[in-house]
Amino acid sequence: MAKFNRILITGAAGALGTVLRENAQHLADTLRLTDIADMGEAKANEEIVQADLGDFNTVLEMTKNVDAVIHLGGMALENTFETILNANIRGFYNLYEACRQNGVKRIVFGSSNHAIGFYEREAMIDSFVPHRPDSLYGVSKAFGEDLARYYWDKFGIETLSIRIGSCFPEPLDRRMLATWLSYRDFIQLCDRGLNTTRVGFTVVYGVSANRENFWNNQQAAFIGYQPQDSAEIYREKVEANSSQPNPNDTAVVYCGGSFPAAGHFEDK
């Protein structure tokens, strides 16, 4: 029997939300799924709520009778400030405040490596370093982690923040040989975030057991995370399909890859 009666998954129409929808039935008796986009018909153990996270009253309603939340909603890439503001900042605040008012005490947050993307790769940072976002998107994820910290310190809402590296069926380029997170390991992280007895406010990196790695993920041992997959099995394929990059290229120097190298999104 699942530990939870009902969990809410935001961003359920997105790539990772879809993966969870298909593989998270063991986490709760009922999955309440929400997204601004269409999610199709509800299955037997699902509830569908199409909603904009920027609307507080809607978020307040959809967090009622929920035991825990996996938050993947919001803009998943760089965009204009107004888009980031509504989806990733206002929407994030609305979720936490609604959870506080409805007594929800556990959240798994899909954060991003772009909250620390301006650290150089060889720094081998851990999850305690100050934020160094590489984009407005990264700024929004840094805000989310700080807001989660605030709601833990002040209201006792526990959050596991997962700084997702590159979560795809397989690594797509040479950078992802270090940052890749398999779907199986992503699901395990969500499971540990919900089922670890106490997480308080914890930040971990969402990466598999890759031979190359930019980050010290020792904090993940605290929740019992044991990655099952590695990008190494794809190395030959990836290297055959890509040239050796210039080591002084901005996209190579920094953890965030192409994000630090890109200009300001709103510049013409």
Automatic annotation (TrEMBL):
Keywords carried by this UniProt record: NAD, Oxidoreductase
Gene Ontology MF terms: oxidoreductase activity
Gene3D superfamilies in the record: NAD(P)-binding Rossmann-like Domain
Superkingdom assignment: Bacteria
NAD-dependent epimerase/dehydratase domain mapped to chain residues: 7-168
Keyword rRNA-binding recorded: no
Family label: Belongs to the NAD(P)-dependent epimerase/dehydratase family.
Protein name, as recorded: Uronate dehydrogenase
